[in-house]
Amino acid sequence: MKRTIATLFTLLCLPLYSAATIKPDIPTPIELSNLEPNRILCPIGDHVSQIVFADDKPLTVQYQNTQAFLQFKHAVVSDETGNEVERLHYSESTDLYAICGDDVYHLVASPKAIRGQTIRLGDPGLQNIRNTLADFRQLDIVDRAQHIVERAYTENLPTSWQVWNERKEPLDQFDQITAHHRRTIEAPGTGLQLREYVIISKQSGVELTERDFIHPPFTHHPFFISLVDHRLQKGEQTRLFVVERVR
């Protein structure tokens, strides 16, 4: 962000399968397509080295780069002339063992007449933390706070960050401004979260500073505050970013 951020340091010191977590060694029920190929992905940094299943299961597996593609075979029923009259798709529960690095994931697959599925193994919350820490590894906590503000200001948020869009009533108890809590953003693993507000002036010539927003209802644990514009005319608006420590 090219413009200078005014700061106040308050040192108060394929469809993705919907299962939240697939952990190693724990049997996990999943649904797979018995019509189309299904994709298996290891946690980032690992690759699928092998998928093990019983010999009598009608399955084929292809490995490509870090992922594997799994498809159920079907049986064809023909009439006396050799013309196909029916396809029988496999529907019995199937135990699969996917090997990623040193971990083995036990999947209890139910074949269904659905679209091909993407199964992402591992704990997505843990992966989000790893992804975030990779971005922040070289930054101290003050630089981390400013980095979070810059990302929010430019609407360039990593997919590993968590965003909650707020739908609370406007904060309208002030004489000069109305404040709307737009969203809360958390960068997992950093110990910081950001609260973004839209500030709208009720009067002309309103002068604001970061110190105006260091108390509730804007924050309870302020660490870093940035206000984009400090002087507003009536009806004008600006953005306020409040970074807090997560406790």
Automatic annotation (TrEMBL):
Residues 143-244 form the TraK C-terminal domain. The keyword Signal applies. Keywords: Signal. InterPro entries: TraK_C, TraK_N. It holds the Pfam family TraK_C. Residues 1-19 form the signal peptide. This is TraK protein. It comes from Desulfurispirillum indicum (strain ATCC BAA-1389 / DSM 22839 / S5).
